Automatic annotation (TrEMBL):
Co-factor remark: Binds 1 zinc ion per subunit.
Keyword Hydrolase among record annotations: yes
Assigned protein family: Belongs to the peptidase M49 family.
Pfam families with a match to the protein in the record: Peptidase_M49
Identification of the protein by name: Dipeptidyl peptidase 3
EC number(s) recorded for this UniProt protein: 3.4.14.4
Gene label: DPP3
Ligand binding (Zn(2+)): H406, H411, E464
Catalytic site positions: E407
Subcellular location: Cytoplasm
Length: 683
């Protein structure tokens, strides 16, 4: 039997067979919608799923091909039927489960790199090809399947250093930039985009050399392919071309147009009009206009957001990954939700200029939170036994408080000082002073500069850290806790577990640090490690972190928090650090902000804690992140039907088999065309 050298117990590059997989329950909420609302939610969902395929093209060169290969195999033989084929090909039941888990991971992450952590994952079985060759898809069309296999099989398993994680230049793989781009190219391109008042959110950058001159192609995601515009900038040539992902952007726009017919009000209709304009012509300004109408659409029964949103996975921190959400309120609890915050998961980015002047919204996905953070006591690492039951009981309520404060008052606060293109300031230069120095403000954002464009590589994590600090600080306020329904002793338990969860998360964050490149692969986890460092530095026994030996005889760690010092030592430390974070951000002080943040982000073996050693312990005891199975909707007659699936790898695969029932083959052909068009750009 072939032995793959990297397939060993505990390898970080494969997904374990027992990985947690949970179905997101939305059945009750969907059935409570009116027929019109169901149609609106359906078409929003279709737009989101078509757009989601863009992520395959944003993740790695091989992701679209692996996706198409799996789709063709499973469409001919769903998981239950394929199991007999696997047995005939010589796979054990464990190996077939590993195959299903790999496929589920590819679908759940929309690519072969983890969406949370950016590391590659590979199949945990050597007989992948044997199964493919035994499949009905291969027997019916061997030439097509063999071509797909030959195109992706090397990268399917390859763990060359550069291919182990996402990154720019020699640090990893990215398809936001051509393979010959480095940090210097990203910085120059950002300057160019700023000079033309273009956002990087919906772009990719490709570089070529011509007669010794650097030539850059900036591609904007758009359904409409327009002639390129040429510019000279700092001894380089730039072309701006609309039409990236054109087929998929057209599909998104078509479904948003259909959704518009079922909009509940004028704000929703205008929001969709602007989104359609954005995805048709590649206009971020149109997306901003759509976001303005989205903000005005208060308390909708069906909530949504779609576009190139979070910039976590762009190694430079400026380009957005496509995402889409179609959410519905669970009506029996809607009044309770609306009495606290105007919400319906995860937060949705609002543009800083809109947030500061017009407002913002964010959305909390209850069915995600319900399953994502469920914890089994026996799998709860690094806590004292006396803390574990308390942690399990109060983690959910405390996390709800933290998320609400993080999103609404963390990301939702903090003024940026700006001088616009006409020279006008949004603050009084003669009055506003730096609270750290007492001096007048001496730096600010100019013209089209934004937080992301100025702080680039640290922007996402820095901002997550700032929002987390806001949550920690404000959860100490009794009035705030009472809004969430927590008072007295219960409120103190929520505070304790919220802070305990944060310092534990800081330790867990070490999983997402790569010592070889001295880089972080996940913005939130870097932020939490920084907070752990701040609270350890506060001293006075607030937080203790110790190396111990576990009950199994292997290295372990123990983190404790002195609850009697949270309101004093802890509060003071977070207040001071938060103030520094905000000052650097508000004043566009990149140099000061980078020095502060990178200093606390450093993972070393020096000082009072050997964090590199703690990282090894964290890796030894880490638990794989859960994957979610999501429902499909289909129109049958005049009604919309919801199809839900079991909480398993097979269920997740089945959901994707049925995701594009009308045009799967056309979609797959277009994905392959888009991928092959740029195949030479990644070398």
């Amino acid at each position: 039997m072939t032995i793959w050298p990297w397939i060993v117990a505990g390898s970080p590059y494969y997904l374990p067979n027992d990985i947690g997989i949970s179905a997101l329950d939305c059945g009750e909420a969907f059935r409570l919608l009116s027929p019109k609302e169901q149609l609106y939610a359906h078409y929003l969902s279709r737009a989101a799923w078509y757009g989601g395929l863009v992520v395959l093209l944003q993740t790695s060169p091989e992701s679209p091909t692996i996706y198409v290969l799996l789709q063709k195999i499973f469409r001919k033989q769903p998981p239950a039927q394929l199991e007999a084929v696997a047995t005939a090909a010589g796979l054990s039941s464990e190996e077939y489960q590993a195959f299903l888990v790999y496929a589920a991971g590819l679908y759940a992450n929309m690519g072969n790199y983890k969406s949370f952590g950016d590391t590659k994952f590979i199949p945990n079985l050597p007989k992948f090809k044997a199964l493919v060759w035994e499949s009905q898809a291969y027997k019916e069309n061997p030439g097509e399947i063999e071509t797909l296999w030959n195109s992706c099989s090397h990268f399917l398993y390859s763990l060359e250093d550069k291919q182990k994680q996402l990154g720019l230049g020699n640090k990893g793989i990215t398809t936001y930039f051509s393979g010959n781009c480095c940090l210097e190219d990203a910085e120059l391109a950002q300057k160019f985009l700023d000079s033309k008042n273009l956002s990087a959110y919906n772009t990719r950058l490709f570089k070529k050399e011509s007669d010794g001159k650097r030539c850059y192609e900036v591609r904007l995601a758009a359904a409409a392919e327009t002639p390129c515009s040429m510019f000279e900038f700092e001894d380089a040539s730039f072309s701006v071309q609309r039409g990236d992902y054109a087929f998929l952007m057209e599909k998104v726009s078509q479904n948003l147009e259909k959704a518009k017919a079922y909009a509940a009000n004028e704000n929703q209709a205008k929001m969709l009009e602007e989104y359609i304009r954005s995805f048709t012509y590649g206009s971020v300004d149109a997306h901003k206009e759509g976001s303005r109408f989205w903000i005005k659409d208060k308390g909708p029964i069906v909530e949504s957001y779609i576009g190139f949103i979070e910039s976590y996975r762009d190694p430079f921190g400026s380009r957005g990954e496509f995402e889409g959400k179609s959410c519905c309120l669970n009506c029996p609890v809607a009044s309770q939700q609306e009495s606290t915050f105007q919400t319906v998961s995860t937060a949705i980015r609002s543009y800083d200029d809109i947030r500061q002047t017009e407002g913002f919204k964010n959305v909390s996905l209850g069915n995600v939170l319900a399953v994502a953070y469920a914890t089994q006591k026996e799998k709860l690492t690094f806590l004292d036994e006396k803390d574990k039951d308390l942690y399990i009981k109060w983690k959910g309520p405390s996390f709800e408080v933290q998320v609400g404060l993080h999103e609404l008052l963390g990301h939702g606060s903090g003024k940026l000082f700006v001088q616009d293109d006409k020279g006008k300031f949004n603050f009084d230069q003669a009055e506003v002073r730096n609270p750290e120095t007492g001096e007048l403000i001496s730096s600010w954002y100019k013209g089209s500069e934004t937080w992301d464009s100025k702080f680039s590589t640290i922007a996402s994590s820095y901002e997550e850290c700032r929002a987390e600090c806001v949550g920690l600080y404000l959860c100490l306020n009794k009035q705030v806790l009472s809004i969430f329904g927590h008072e007295g002793e219960e409120a103190e338990e929520v505070i304790y577990v919220n802070w305990l969860n944060m310092v534990r998360a800081g330790l867990l964050g070490l999983e997402f640090y790569t010592p070889e490149s001295k880089s972080w692969r996940q913005a939130h986890m870097q932020a939490r490690f920084v907070i752990l460092r701040v609270l350890l530095e506060a001293g006075e026994g607030l937080v203790t972190l110790s190396e111990i030996t576990g009950a199994d005889g292997r290295p372990d760690a123990l983190i404790t928090l002195d609850r009697s010092k949270i309101h004093t030592v802890g509060k003071s430390a977070i207040q001071k650090f938060l103030c520094k974070l905000q000052v650097h951000k508000s004043t566009a002080d990149v140099e000061g902000g980078r020095a502060l943040y990178e200093g606390y982000s450093a993972v070393t073996s020096d000082g009072s804690h050997n964090f590199l050693q703690f990282r090894e312990t964290v890796l030894l005891r880490k638990e794989a992140r859960k994957m979610f199975v999501q429902a499909n909707t289909q129109i049958k007659g005049e009604a919309v039907e919801l199809e839900e699936y079991e909480s398993s790898a097979a269920g997740l695969v089945q959901s994707f088999i049925q995701r594009f029932p009308e045009d799967a083959e056309e979609v797959e052909a277009q994905l392959l065309e888009l991928a092959s068009r740029d195949a030479t750009c990644w070398c």
